Amino acid sequence: DQQVKQNSPSLSVQEGRISILNCDYTNSMFDYFLWYKKYPAEGPTFLISISSIKDKNEDGRFTVFLNKSAKHLSLHIVPSQPGDSAVYFCAAERQGAQKLVFGQGTRLTINP
Amino acid sequence: GAVVSQHPSRVICKSGTSVKIECRSLDFQATTMFWYRQFPKQSLMLMATSNEGSKATYEQGVEKDKFLINHASLTLSTLTVTSAHPEDSSFYICSARDPQDSPLHFGNGTRLTVT
Question: Do the Cβ atoms of A71 and A28 come closer than 8 Å?
Fold first, then answer.
């Protein structure tokens, strides 16, 4: 049972344009959502998070949007840079449970 | 920010041997650490929750006798893959949460190859 889903295994975006990565979840108990970036042979690096009491959180070039009714969140990166090329994982948890559930990841490639 | 250190980064071992992986929280104390496993092109799957001073909690389908976890101090958890077999070859990643800082932070992972 995949509780967190990233349906796009890969995404290719031109440098300078907007990258939009999507994530859906099924467990309505999740109330904290995170995005991680991962390079090959390295551990995930935390990017940005959002609590279920918000619908948007912004940090520099990164913005996460949460649509609770649709059980959907997205990560926007603008402008996209070559260094953003990596695998991005969406993750969710129920605060207090301390267990992160990850999506399958989306490989983002930024083309010069 | 919080730093989680994992060692070794890469290990190759022969089938039947045991391998120990260490996970340390460098600038904070972690009563709980988490061990994940990632197969190629797949998601990170939680294997077990390591609890300082008590037994680890294993996820369904994870053999506790095969993946021994010890969390002897507030800054160190170890995962020992016992009697390793080629199907245990994977990328193992530990993580911990700084109580002062909400998100989970990850180590750099250990690539285990069992020949």
Answer: yes
Question: What is the dihedral angle through the alpha carbons of A50, A51, A57, A63, rounded to the nearest 10 degrees?
Answer: 30
Q: Is A53 on the interface with B (CB under 8 A)?
A: no
pLDDT at B35 exceeding the cut of 70:
yes
Tens digits of per-residue pLDDT, A41-78?
A: 889 999 999 999 999 999 999 999 999 999 999 999 99
- Smallest Cα distance from A52 to chain B, Å: 14
Contact (CB<8Å) B6/A43:
yes
Q: What is the dihedral of CA B88, A6, A38, A13, to 10 degrees?
A: 140
Give contacts of A62 with chain B, Cβ < 8 Å.
none
- CA dist B95 and B103 (Å) reads 10
Chain A nearest-CA distance from B22, in A, is: 14
What is the pLDDT at residue B2?
A: 64
What b-and-e string marks burial along B48-86, b requiring 16 or more CB atoms within 10 Å of the CB? bbbebeeebbbeeebeeeebbbbbeeebbbbbebeebee
